[in-house]
């Protein structure tokens, strides 16, 4: 099993799905350790749907967050963050604003993807109850528990081009001992597959690529063309990510990590960051491992690894996704189109040089 976001000690992940026939949406919550994590954010898409991202500006008061919400449902789905806030308030977790320990305001930044109507029911979208279910699922997991990938949580209705998208995660351990990990919701109008070869763009960075045969690629192209004809115009889009580390970062450094991690999206999906994208990356730093004090460029290896793990997480999302065919459209998975190619990520967290 590939490494994931929960390889950063203290982080937990929970998913919830909108119930009901005709629903194809959900929410994913990344729960920080008690006391929160230093956070940053970088929004590159021209049409973002976000909540509480201004609070993460390094010039502002907030330095730590208790959770991050990734949700389907477009702007409607941002309501799911209210359910997470309510749960955190009950736990006494948040910024203390009064003399009583229970008087807290949890800071819960959130971002959404567009998946409205993908299951056939336009009004089936995440709300506060979905967010609460996701954070409760996160809290119920053991530390370090594997993260479920594919068509789950905020990736339930995700689509990349005409391919079924979803949730993916990856991690790496640097030579310094610092862990860097990412979780993505891959949902983009751009292509994830090289039209010349059928290889996922993100797999090229691995250096070992299994090329589909020309016959398999041609058959996949025909199926995608048929899906495109049935589905109509390309789906609206947005790719979301949380990149995390156990390094000790300042809010400004966390924001820099969020910014460079966008390079990982650009390597795996083409095009990105357009006017109707909402591409957003959050960064979390738990602070367990200080950066080398004698190296003013020590952050660089974390920045580079953040982008790489985002790319790998997008590949994981596409390899784990399951095909969907219903009233909202036909979205085949990459594996259904191209078969089971070797997974280039191995069985655990990568270590540089392995």
For the report, how would you describe the main beta sheet?
Answer: 7 strands, mixed
Total beta-strand segments: 18
- The residue fraction in helices comes out at 10-25%
Q: What proportion strand? A: 15-25%
Q: Give the class from helix and strand content and strand pairing.
A: alpha+beta
Residue ranges: pLDDT <50 for 5 or more in a row?
Answer: 342-354
- Number of separate helices: 6
Summarize the helix and strand pattern as letters: EEEEEEHEEEHEEEEHEHEHEEHE
Q: Widest sheet: strand order?
A: 5-3-15-14-13-12-18
Cα radius of gyration in angstroms: 19 Å
**What's the overall average pLDDT, rounded?**
92
Oligomer: single chain
Termini Cα gap: 16 Å
Shape estimate: globular
Provide a descriptive summary of the structure in words:
57% of the residues are buried. The protein has a seven-stranded mixed β-sheet. The chain has a five-stranded mixed β-sheet with strand order 1-2-6-9-4, covered by helices on one side. Mean pLDDT is 92; it is low at 342-354. Helix 4 crosses helix 5. It has helices at 80-90, 128-140, 214-231, 251-268, 299-320, 334-338, and strands at residues 12-17, 26-31, 37-43, 50-51, 64-65, 67-71, 95-96, 104-105, 110-112, 159-160, 163-164, 166-173, 179-186, 240-247, 280-289, 324-326, 329-331, 350-351. The protein is an alpha+beta fold and 354 residues long. The two termini are 16 Å apart.
């Amino acid at each position: 099993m590939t490494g994931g976001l929960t390889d950063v000690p203290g982080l937990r992940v929970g998913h919830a799905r909108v119930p009901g026939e005709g629903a194809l949406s959900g929410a994913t919550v990344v729960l920080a350790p008690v006391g929160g994590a230093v956070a940053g954010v970088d929004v590159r898409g021209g049409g973002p749907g976000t909540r509480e991202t201004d609070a993460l500006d390094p010039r502002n008061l907030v330095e730590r967050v208790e959770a991050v919400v990734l949700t389907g449902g477009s702007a409607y789905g941002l309501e799911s963050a209210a359910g997470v806030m309510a749960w955190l308030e009950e736990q006494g977790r948040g910024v203390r604003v009064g003399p009583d320990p229970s008087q807290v305001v949890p800071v819960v930044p959130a971002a959404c993807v567009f998946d409205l109507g993908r299951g056939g029911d336009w009004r089936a979208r995440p709300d506060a109850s979905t967010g609460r279910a996701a954070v409760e699922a996160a809290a119920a997991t053991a530390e370090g528990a594997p993260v479920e990938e594919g068509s789950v949580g905020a990736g339930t209705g995700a689509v990349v081009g005409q391919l079924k998208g979803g949730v993916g995660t990856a991690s790496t351990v640097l030579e310094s001992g610092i862990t860097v990990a990412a979780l993505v919701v891959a949902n983009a109008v751009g292509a994830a597959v090289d039209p010349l070869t059928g290889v996922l763009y993100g797999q090229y960075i691995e250096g070992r690529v299994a090329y589909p045969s020309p016959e398999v690629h041609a058959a996949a192209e025909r199926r995608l063309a048929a899906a495109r004809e049935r589905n109509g115009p390309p789906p609206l889009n947005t790719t979301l990510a949380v990149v995390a580390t156990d390094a000790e970062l300042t809010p400004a450094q966390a924001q820099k990590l969020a910014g460079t991690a966008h390079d990982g999206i650009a390597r795996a999906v083409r095009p990105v960051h357009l006017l109707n994208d909402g591409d957003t990356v959050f960064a979390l730093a738990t602070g367990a491992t200080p950066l080398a004090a004698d190296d003013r460029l020590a952050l660089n290896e974390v920045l580079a690894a953040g982008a790489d793990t985002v790319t790998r997480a997008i590949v994981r999302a596409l390899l784990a996704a399951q095909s969907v065919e219903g009233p909202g459209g036909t979205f085949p998975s990459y594996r259904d189109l191209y078969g089971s190619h070797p997974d280039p990520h191995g069985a655990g967290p990568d270590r540089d040089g392995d």
